[in-house]
Design a protein that fits this description.
Strands 1, 4, 5, 6, 7, 8 and 9 form a 7-stranded mixed β-sheet that branches. A two-stranded antiparallel sheet has the order 2-3. A hairpin with a 3-residue loop joins strand 2 and strand 3. It is globular, with a radius of gyration of 17 Å. The model has no long low-confidence stretch (mean pLDDT about 90). It is built from 2 helices and 9 strands; from the N terminus they run αβββββββββα. It is mainly beta.
């Protein structure tokens, strides 16, 4: 990606959620938005998992999303490349749906967003089970 292309494209936000629906008036509804996954035991499989990227800028781009294992050695899941276009000064939403995604171990997974086959941004997704003592935390105050 050239420097001129990078200046024309901004990734405003990335959301992890269970599902996304297109509503009347071209509105998006996000169900089950989350920042991390905490479960009773691992491995865990998500029946449906969506990653939403909200873009600003202009131009035509090829987008991919991939999730890498905590050691960065293995892809957990990889989306198909999807072309999207943004009119000058406009916005675009790119949604990647995955089914039956299995996270085999606890750790920090790397969610990479690629534009034209180059890593544009990397987000972190922590997966843990409730038995992990470092994830439980302690508090001396009672609410």
């Amino acid at each position: 990606m050239t420097t001129a292309d990078q200046k024309n494209l901004k990734l405003l936000y990335t959301l992890f959620c269970d599902d996304v629906r297109l509503e009347a008036g071209n509105k998006l509804s996000f169900m089950g938005v989350f920042q991390s996954i905490m479960v009773q035991q691992l491995p865990v499989s998500l029946i449906k998992f969506a990653i939403v990227n909200h873009w600003q800028g202009q131009g035509s781009y090829l987008s991919e999303v991939r999730i890498l294992s905590p050691d960065r050695q293995h892809p957990v899941v990889v989306s198909q490349p999807t072309r999207f276009e943004i009119a000058s000064g406009g916005f675009a939403d790119n949604i990647s749906f995955f089914v039956n995604v299995t996270f085999p171990t606890s750790g920090t997974y790397f969610v990479q967003t690629l534009i034209d086959s180059n890593v544009f941004r990397e987000d972190l997704l922590t997966v843990s089970d409730v038995a992990e003592p470092e994830m439980l935390g302690t508090s001396e105050s009672v609410n």
